[in-house]
Amino acid sequence: MIWRHLGILSTIGLVLLTTATHAASYTLFAYDGFLYDQVADYDQIVKRLVPGDELVFSNGDVQRIGQLVGTGNTTLIFELANDSEKLIRIPKGRDWAEFTETRYMEYMSSYQIGAEALRDQGVPIVKIHDQLAGEFTIVERIPGEMSLRDFLNRPPGAEGAQEMQDALVEFARKTAGFQEIGDFHPGQLFYHTGRKEWVLVDWSSAHLPLVPTSEDMLSRSRSLFVGRPEYRADFFFQFLKSAEAEPGNVIFTPVREEYSWIANLANRIHRAVTDERKSMIMKRATTPNLTDDGSRRRGCIFSILPGTI
């Protein structure tokens, strides 16, 4: 029996030793004489990364990675070895992203810059714990991991469905100040079971703000989810038969009866966004000196220099 236990301990020790032997430390970014950039063999390094490896960044930060949990068009996402509830995002490659003229580092910077605009407007996003411009972003891992795409394809009577529908309407209301959010689609929006709200997990900085100035403008502006009568919303198009216009309004109908709940949800979202934009119009009409983002314009003090007049 003693020898059996010793054998088990030896096996565990061998596994740990093997893991430690294979783990490595890689410098991903270095000073090239002009600025900090990805190392020349960055592409080769990220292809051979394994759990336990250490990533060294230009500011000296060292992060030990766990499992690879996601691969996007421009980003690799790993869990942190010492905290699986946090994820680290790094550029997917060194040079230009496929079919673009933009470097992978620039996409990381775009993600970081885009987060500021979303937070400023009160749009719920994933919590960002740490970041370094263009190099990495550490975010929380969303509990539950249900995307809007998953939600729209599950039975409407499933547990928590009504709560999640209500939360989606509230999320949409908070996006009323945008006509576009960069890289926004149903796979980027997840339900956070801890916060009981929908949160964005991915985006770019290519946001298009909306500053409604009249009720007439409302009928010509679309939201992120539902839009002009001739426009089929990306989020709901496969479930909705048509969007028929009424004066200043949009009505969605389902392709099949089983999608009636999605049509009702789309119509609730449209009303919530429209009502919020009407409130924005009233606020601008009754509050002087508002800037385009809805904040109060600060007074300017001009200094007249001697001899300038």
Notes on the protein architecture:
With 309 residues, this protein is an alpha+beta fold. The protein folds into 2 domains: 118 residues, Phosphorylase Kinase, domain 1, CATH 3.30.200.20; 141 residues, no CATH class. It is 31% helix and 24% strand. Strand 4 and strand 5 form a beta hairpin. The chain is globular.
Descriptive labels:
single chain; 309 residues; alpha+beta; Phosphorylase Kinase, domain 1; 2 domains; seven-stranded mixed beta sheet; three-stranded antiparallel beta sheet; 7 helices; 16 strands; 31% helix; disordered N terminus; disordered C terminus
Helices and strands in order:
Layout: H1 2-22, E1 25-27, E2 29-31, E3 36-38, H2 42-47, E4 54-56, E5 62-71, E6 75-80, E7 83-91, H3 104-120, E8 128-132, E9 136-140, E10 146-147, H4 148-152, H5 161-174, E11 178-180, E12 189-192, E13 197-200, E14 208-209, H6 215-220, E15 240-246, E16 249-254, H7 260-286
Parallel strand pairs: 1-4
Antiparallel strand pairs: 2-3, 4-5, 5-6, 6-7, 7-9, 8-9, 10-12, 11-14, 12-13, 15-16
Helix pairs in contact: 5-7
